[in-house]
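The authors assume throughout that readers already know how a fold can be written as discrete tokens. For illustration, here is how one protein appears when written out as sequence plus structure tokens.
>
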Amino acid sequence: MPVLAAAAAIHSPLTVTFVPGTGNTFALTFDGDQESQGTEKLLALLRRRHIVATLFVTGRFAELHPELLREAAADGHEIGNHTFSHPHLTTWAQNHRHLTLPGVTRETLQRELRDAAEAIRRAIGRPPIKLWRAPYGEHNAEIRAWAAELGYVQIGWTGGCGDALDALDWVEDPSSRRFLGAEAMARHLLSFEDRCGIPLAGSIILMHLGSARPDLPLLEALPIVLDETDRRGLHPVPVTELLRLGGELPADRSDIDHVNR
């Protein structure tokens, strides 16, 4: 059964991290919470390259930066839900297990999603598409089922072999081994297929809209990635297009993205 065809069921516990059978396409996704430094330049870069991406933003981002979100929506980018306040949802940070964090309930998770959707609606005049991304990548079957009750499908990013298509642009500590400069960031993404044997075609890449880093390496890394993927004959598309191309967006879920079409 196609991944999203199963995920479309209201109480489905599934998530989407990779979509096979999409030909030569992959998805660029950008998460946004409170930081916006570099976002305007990033949107301009995507506009120049005629690229449409999927942006998962929090309600806080929508309230703090409505003009940037309106600009992104006007450029045709898909706007997904990233909760309102970007809370931790599981115990991963404590024990590397995705147990539902005490205090996280059906009511609190759904309030986060509803409040974010309302903040996004106020900013751009329409609610987000029915795709969400759990903050910090923290989710489990129970949490995803609560979100699915509101019609949301959880979209992760591609990973494997203990690695992931995560630009690591969020790492701010220069002493961390995951702190990367622009060229290293690009190499990290472009070499993923060789490292893990998972093709870039059909993949979902994680990047971010803003950063507290003063050097903003993503603005230099992304053109390197796009030049090389162009050379390889790969083309970025928004997540809903990736799902369609992979035959994983069933007819009964046309509501997933109708607000952005």
User: Anything to note?
Assistant: Confidence is low (pLDDT under 50) at residues 1-12.
